[in-house]
Amino acid sequence: MIVVEHVTKNYGKKTAVNDLSFTVRPGVVTGFLGPNGAGKSTTMRMIVGLDRPDTGSVTVGGKPYRDHVAPLHEVGALLEARAIHPGRSAYNHLLALATTTGIPRRRITEVLDLVGLSTVGRKRAGAFSLGMGQRLGIAAALLGDPDVVILDEPVNGLDPEGIVWIRNLLKSLADEGRTVFVSSHLISEIALVAEHLIVVGRGELIADTSVSEMQRAASGVVVRVRSPRASELARLLLDDGVTVESSGGPSELRVTGLEAAVIGDRALAAGLPVHALIPTEVSLEQAFMQLTHDSVEYEPTAPAPEPAGTRQEVTSR
Ligand SMILES: Nc1ncnc2c1ncn2[C@@H]1O[C@H](COP(=O)(O)OP(=O)(O)OP(=O)(O)O)[C@@H](O)[C@H]1O
After folding, report:
1. d(CA 78, CA 83)
2. What is the topology classification, in CATH, of domain 2-209?
3. Where is this region: Disordered (predicted)?
4. How far is the CA of 39 from the centre of ligand 1 (A)?
5. Residue ranges per domain, the chain?
6. C-alpha 41 – ligand 1 centre gap (Å)
7. What is the pTM of this model?
8. Which residues does a 6 A CB cutoff place in the pocket of ligand 1?
9. What is the number of H-type helices and E-type strands within the chain?
């Protein structure tokens, strides 16, 4: 279990993490999601004792990382996939780590097998592809057979087969009762591997929720309504937090911020006919953008041109 309590971390005048609290529980893969610069890496560094919070506390298995007698058995982390000597073989990279931490040699063969690198274990790590480098980083994280596994952007650089592999690996680690915490700035990536989500923006907690709950909460927020008296209906529905736009013709509206049932009930009470009431499915990307649109660190000054067919359907409230 990882417990982050009221943690704040400043770098000079920059607040990287602001009064952040959350718990990562064993048995499920938890994603750590947020736009670039949201404070994910800083938080992960504090979990593994590479940085100290200015205020608040971070514990792993009930203690700060540095208080563990054999920290590699407690926490395995992949924070910099490329922090590998390029001239060293994968085997020797792991051997160097194992010998300084009292881990037996046979464990090296085991983890190389686990990450699918046993046939290239003697090859120079400098010649590895990005995906192979990620696998080696994961092997190093698992070397001490840790209860808590922390991986910063592990899916980055993996091909579809690699993504399936890492999903199965993370799931099996969680099923064994371990705490598994993986970061990404892409909801599409994290939704493939994680069940639960901690979402951050500008160093603050935005959501602590399951992937399915996030999808459920966001879908149905936009409703397409067809009525021969659309303009009267639009006036009736307009309210704080509700956006009504005409779409696809004079009798069609797009309503954001009201559920379909509420729209139908209000129309009925006012005696206005409704010919169609269609809740629109919102993609996970759109759900994530809705959640984080106020928290994006670096926004383009002018909107980027939208490729045809990808117009964002959700208007922010
Ligand atoms: N050592 C540092 N010195 C100064 N500022 C830093 C330092 N480390 C991080 N920051 C700043 O703190 C903020 C949070 O950075 P962090 O790397 O934790 O975010 P992140 O969510 O991991 O982003 P990314 O997805 O881009 O890796 C950013 O604004 C970053 O510029």
Report:
1. 9
2. Rossmann fold (3.40.50)
3. 298-317
4. 6
5. 2-209, 220-280
6. 7
7. 0.77
8. 11, 14, 16, 34, 36-42, 185, 297
9. 11, 13
